[in-house]
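Deliverable D2.4 — example input (C-alpha cells):
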C-alpha cells in the first residue's frame, strides 16, 4: 500500500475541453481515498516546476461545486508547456532539481496529464526513479484531441473536439447551401499524422446534407490531380461542395501538402502552414467557381459550449482511476480506455505500461478509409458515434459561461504576491 504523503499533478501539451475534467477526477479520487495529505499542481507543467511554479490544489478546490466547475472549464487550469525533458545522461541536473522537490515536499505520486510528448516525460521520470530506486509512483493520464495515443480505445478530449467538428461542419453546410452559385468550401481540421478528428466530420451528415462530400486523411496518400477529379465528379451532382481535409495530408512520397521551409518545433515536428489554403489556391486555377478555405485552428480544442458529456464523464472517471491505481502500487503506466461494446456503448479503464505508449502513434486503420481514399467507412462511424453523445450543463453569468479563475496563468506578478503572502 501507498505510504501516506503528498502528490503532485501536471498538465502539458495542447489544451482540450476535457483535461480539467481529468484533473477534477484526480482531485475527487484523492479526497475520497484519504491516502494523501496535500495535492500540489505544477504550473506550466514540468517546465514550470523546474522554475519553482506550483499551487496547493488542496486549498483551492475544497467543495464538490468547485470541482464540478473545474470539470467543465476548458483548456488547462494548471497551464501547459512544450518542454522536451532531456535524457538523464544529457542533463542529470534537471532530474536532481525535480526529485529534490519531490523529496522536500514528501511527494509519493506524480500524475501527469497529456498526449504523446507528455507520456515521453512520464517514461523518463519513471526510468530515472527506477534507476535511483526512488520511492515514487508516476502515472500518466491520456489527453489529446488528436486521438493518437496507442493502447487506449480513445483519448479524453477527442470526443468533445469531434462533436465540435461535426457540429461546425453541419453549420457550415447551412451557411453554404443558401447561395445559388457553385462553390467549393475546404475545411482544414487538426491532425498531423492521424486523421481521427477530420474523420469525425462525417458525423455531420444528415438526411438533407451530404457534407462533407469528400474527406482526406493523412493515412491515405493524397494526389492533387485526383483531388481535382474528385471535385469535378461531385460537381455533376451537387452545386455546393464541402471538403474536410486534415492539416497533415501527404502525397505518395510522404511529403506534407502544406509544409514549406525546414522549421520544426521542440519535439522535431515539422511546422505546417495551411493545407486548406494550399488547396484553395490550387483549385482556383483549376475550377471556374467560388473556392474558399476555412481553418478551424484552435477553436476545435476548447469549445466547452459544445462538449460531449460522454467525454467529460469518462475524463473524470479516468482521473479517479489513476488515483486508485497509484494507491494500489501502479507506476510507470498510463490509464487507458478499453471498449467492451458499441451498442450499448461501454468502456472499462485499465492501466498499460508506459514504455508501450510513449513516443508511439496510433493512426486510423486503412480499412476504415474507403478504397478511393476520399471518405470513411461505416466501421469508422460506428466507432465515433458514442464518443460525442450527451451535453454538459454549464452555468452562465452576464451571458457568459462560468469557468474557473485562471489569474495565476496570465498575471506575471501572481507568484511574487504568493511568495509575499
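Example output (designed residues):
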Amino acid at each position: 500500500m501507498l505510504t501516506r504523503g503528498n502528490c503532485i499533478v501536471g498538465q502539458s501539451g495542447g489544451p482540450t475541453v476535457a483535461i480539467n475534467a481529468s484533473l477534477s477526477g484526480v482531485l475527487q479520487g484523492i479526497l475520497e481515498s484519504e491516502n494523501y495529505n496535500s495535492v500540489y499542481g505544477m504550473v506550466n507543467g514540468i517546465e514550470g516546476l523546474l522554475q519553482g511554479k506550483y499551487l496547493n490544489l488542496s486549498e483551492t478546490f475544497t467543495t464538490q461545486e468547485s470541482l464540478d466547475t473545474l470539470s467543465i472549464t476548458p483548456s488547462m487550469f494548471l497551464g501547459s508547456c512544450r518542454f522536451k525533458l532531456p535524457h538523464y545522461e544529457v542533463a542529470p541536473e534537471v532530474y536532481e532539481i525535480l526529485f529534490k522537490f519531490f523529496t522536500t515536499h514528501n511527494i509519493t505520486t506524480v500524475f501527469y496529464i497529456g498526449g504523446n510528448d507528455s507520456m515521453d516525460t512520464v517514461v523518463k521520470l519513471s526510468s530515472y526513479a527506477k534507476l535511483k530506486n526512488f520511492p515514487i509512483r508516476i502515472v500518466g493520464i491520456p489527453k489529446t484531441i488528436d486521438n493518437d495515443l496507442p493502447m487506449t480505445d480513445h483519448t479524453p478530449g477527442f470526443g468533445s473536439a469531434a462533436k465540435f467538428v461535426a457540429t461546425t461542419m453541419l453549420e457550415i453546410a447551412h451557411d453554404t447551401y443558401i447561395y445559388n452559385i457553385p462553390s467549393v468550401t475546404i475545411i482544414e481540421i487538426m491532425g498531423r499524422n492521424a486523421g481521427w478528428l477530420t474523420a469525425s466530420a462525417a458525423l455531420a451528415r444528415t438526411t438533407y446534407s451530404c457534407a462533407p462530400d469528400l474527406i482526406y486523411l493523412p493515412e491515405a496518400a493524397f494526389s492533387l490531380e485526383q483531388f481535382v477529379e474528385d471535385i469535378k465528379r461531385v460537381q455533376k451532382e451537387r452545386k455546393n461542395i464541402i471538403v474536410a481535409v486534415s492539416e497533415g495530408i501527404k502525397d505518395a512520397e510522404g511529403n506534407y501538402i502544406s509544409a514549406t521551409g525546414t522549421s520544426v518545433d521542440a519535439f522535431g515536428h515539422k511546422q505546417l502552414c495551411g493545407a486548406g489554403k494550399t488547396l484553395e489556391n490550387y483549385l482556383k486555377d483549376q475550377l471556374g467557381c467560388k473556392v474558399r478555405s476555412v481553418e478551424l485552428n484552435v477553436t476545435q480544442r476548447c469549445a466547452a459550449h459544445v462538449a460531449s458529456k460522454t467525454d467529460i464523464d469518462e475524463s473524470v472517471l479516468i482521473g479517479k482511476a489513476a488515483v486508485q491505481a497509484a494507491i494500489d502500487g501502479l507506476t510507470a503506466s498510463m490509464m487507458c480506455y478499453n471498449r467492451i461494446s458499441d451498442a450499448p456503448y461501454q468502456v472499462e479503464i485499465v492501466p498499460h505500461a508506459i514504455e508501450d505508449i510513449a513516443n508511439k502513434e496510433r493512426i486510423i486503420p486503412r480499412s476504415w478509409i474507403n478504397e478511393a481514399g476520399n471518405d470513411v467507412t461505416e466501421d469508422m462511424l460506428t466507432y465515433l458515434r458514442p464518443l460525442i453523445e450527451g451535453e454538459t450543463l454549464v452555468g452562465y453569468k452576464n451571458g457568459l459561461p462560468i469557468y474557473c479563475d485562471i489569474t495565476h496563468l496570465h498575471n506575471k506578478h501572481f507568484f511574487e504576491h504568493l511568495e509575499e503572502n
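The mean pLDDT is 93.
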